[in-house]
Design a protein that fits this description.
Blueprint (H helix, E strand, L loop, with lengths): L2 H23 L5 E5 L6 H17 L3 E5 L6 H8 L7 E6 L1 H8 L11 E17 L7 H10 L5 E4 L5 H13 L4 E4 L3 H9 L5 E5 H10 L2 E6 L25 E9 L4 H16 L1 H9 L3 E2 L7 H22 L5
Parallel strand pairs: 1-2, 1-3, 5-6, 5-7
Antiparallel strand pairs: 3-9, 4-7, 4-8, 4-9, 4-10
Helix pairs in contact: 2-9, 4-11
The structure holds aspartic acid (ASP).
Aspartic acid (ASP) binds next to α2, α6, α7 and β7.
Length: 325
């Protein structure tokens, strides 16, 4: 072999070695998952369960950082700008798709600012009220909200949050707007619902199941097509007379654009392992949700989901003409 060719071959071997060593070495330190809502809420709960299990698989600490504000877009912006090295990740729900239209001045480009790790879970919503709220079923709640539109208050986690979307659908069923109270997440909103400072909340089962079971709040309906095993007495929205309110709140895990493909692949694998962890599956079941399947917890599935959901919600939001800015 000529000297130049020998040199080139040696460089290539070294480079390959470095890539392999990089992939093997990752992760070498703590990974942070940004949750764009307050601690104690549904996105936080789901992410902490998954993070604990991923940490066992990855052999490094995986911690959750709550960066709340603007319906989740504050945390998403932070991750879009983070170093793309696999040490900063994001778990954001359906709001990732709706905020693309709701916020006309987003500081990041939703479909191009992230690498996709995979889908995490799809959680039904529940329409709940404070324990002593007068109406006992969804139809009476709609009538009550109509009659008391200036008095009754509806909590949400900011424009773009799942609770905001669900609240908008509820208001369109009521046929009028009611007073909304924004929080940094539905964790703090639930605290105020329990304390009677706010009347109604529309939130994921991951945040409401325990309280419904304990009788500390009133449940009016669940937005899934069938009743849930953990909440057998709660009717579906269809049974309760609002068939248009059927939907689920899906969550995805993202990394900043430019995160190396081998690192993203390692994270997807780890997410898939976490979602099959019997402890995670059991806790998800108790909270009325199911982990994403192995095929769903992939970059391809999340990319397809996000693209589909951005297109699905765009005309709906544009027709409503309600923007966050
Ligand atoms: N998931 C909640 C919502 O969108 C927010 C949260 O997780 O705290 O309303």
């Amino acid at each position: 072999m000529k000297r130049v060719a020998k040199f080139a071959a040696a460089v290539a071997v070294l480079a390959l070695g470095a890539v392999a060593a990089g992939a093997q070495a990752y992760p070498e330190r703590t990974i942070t998952i940004v949750v764009p809502f307050a601690a104690g809420g549904p996105t936080d709960t789901v992410t902490r369960l998954v993070a604990e299990s991923m940490s066992k698989d990855l052999g490094q600490e995986v911690i959750v950082e709550n960066v709340a504000g603007a319906g989740g877009t504050t945390g998403a912006s932070q991750v879009a700008e983070a170093e793309p090295d696999g040490y900063t990740l994001l778990v954001y729900h359906i709001g990732m798709a709706t905020s693309a239209t709701l916020y006309r001045n987003l500081p990041y480009d939703t479909l191009n600012a992230f690498e996709y790790v995979g889908l995490v879970t799809d959680v039904p919503m529940t329409i709940v009220g404070r324990k002593d709220l007068e109406p006992n079923d969804l139809k009476s709640l709609v009538d009550y909200a109509k009659a008391n539109k200036d008095k009754v208050s509806l909590a949400n986690a900011g424009i773009g949050a799942a609770s905001h979307l669900c609240g908008m659908l509820f208001m369109s069923a009521v046929g009028t707007t009611i007073v909304t109270v924004p929080y940094k997440g539905t964790g703090p909103a639930m605290t105020d619902l329990l304390g009677g400072q706010v009347d109604i909340l529309c939130d994921q089962t991951t945040n409401t199941t325990k309280q419904i079971q304990g009788g500390t709040i009133k449940a009016y309906a669940v937005t899934s097509p069938a009743r849930l095993d953990v909440l057998p007495d709660v009717p579906t929205t269809e049974e309760a007379g609002l068939p248009g309110m059927q939907f689920g709140i899906w969550h995805g895990m993202y990394a900043p654009k430019g995160t190396p493909p081998d690192v993203v692949a390692r994270l997807s694998k780890s997410l898939q392992i976490a979602l099959k962890d019997p402890n995670v599956a059991a806790r998800f079941a108790e909270l009325g949700t199911k982990p994403a399947t192995e095929a769903e917890a992939t970059p391809e599935a999340l990319k397809a989901k996000l693209e589909g959901e951005v297109s699905r919600w765009k005309p709906i939001i544009e027709a409503a003409g309600q923007y966050a800015d």
